[in-house]
Design brief:
With 266 residues, the protein is of the alpha+beta class. The chain has eleven helices and six strands.
Length: 266
């Protein structure tokens, strides 16, 4: 996937796939990002205070060593909190999760440790001279609401929304390919990027024009045949083939339970 930086309009970020199909992500606003940062700051402050109280005994015995250790621990908690959670939770911290925000790459895929570390280690510069003035101004003038750390890491912060899983993905898998252990096991071995691409296409296919929809699923169908090392059954269209792969990725709901909801970006 490649980024279409020239299509950043009205708080949206548009990603153009190699098949020339557009996916739009809703950018997070300054206010919601501030609230998420404030909540995370309170959590970091609470953790740091608890650790400092624990180090109080050390400070009594070794005053200089205890103070130095406290400063080191504070910075480790402050930076390590965001880096660890954004890596483990695919771009979210407690604050971002509470506000339904997520950090992703400009290409539309999830971030890894490298991106999380890079954007968070740049925070001291974004905070200059105080209260994130540099970062706030950078986000205001940037068309994609990026602070300096985001520009450096190639990331953006977007809003999440919940969509009901289509009935085609929640169908019973007691027959056909969904009941084939070989098919299901190979689907489970798809890469994270391939899974996200399949599920995003399945959830958003109704938003696409017919020409773009046919082109997208034709490319996805061929890619999935290579990834799964399986030929598509002749009676299945490329779209139905892709939906079956998506269905194998979605846990089958209890028949008595309400239809599941999937969290998507944009």
């Amino acid at each position: 996937m490649t980024t279409a930086t020239d299509t950043l309009l009205d708080g949206t970020h548009t990603v153009l796939t190699p098949e020339y199909v557009e996916f739009r992500f809703t950018l997070a606003g300054i206010y919601s990002r501030f609230l998420a940062w404030l909540l995370d700051g309170l959590i970091v402050g609470g953790i740091s205070m608890a650790i400092m109280m624990g180090l109080g005994v050390v400070s009594l015995a070794f005053e200089g060593f205890g103070s130095a250790l406290g400063i080191v621990v504070f910075f480790l908690v402050e930076w390590g909190y965001s880096i660890a959670l954004e890596t483990a939770w695919s771009g979210q911290t407690v604050g971002k999760r509470a506000l339904s925000l997520r950090v992703i790459q400009e290409s539309g895929v999830r971030i890894g440790f490298y991106h999380a570390a890079l954007r968070n280690l740049a925070r001291p510069v974004d905070r200059l001279p105080l209260f994130y003035l540099v970062g706030g101004l950078s986000a205001l003038v940037s068309g994609s609401h990026q602070r300096l750390g985001d520009m450096l890491a190639g990331t953006i912060v977007v809003r999440e929304r919940r969509l009901r899983v289509p009935s085609a993905l929640g169908a019973s898998g007691e027959e056909g390919l969904l009941a084939d252990p070989l098919f299901v096991s190979r689907v489970k071995r798809l890469s994270t990027e391939e899974r996200e691409l399949v599920l995003s296409a399945a959830m958003r296919r109704e938003e696409l024009r017919m020409e773009a929809r046919l082109r997208l699923f034709s490319a996805l169908g061929a890619r999935l045949q290579d990834a799964l090392a399986m030929e598509k059954p002749a009676h299945l269209s490329d779209e139905k083939w892709t939906l079956l792969v998506a269905a194998a990725l979605v846990p089958r709901p209890d028949a008595r339970a309400p239809a599941p909801r999937a969290r998507v970006l944009g």
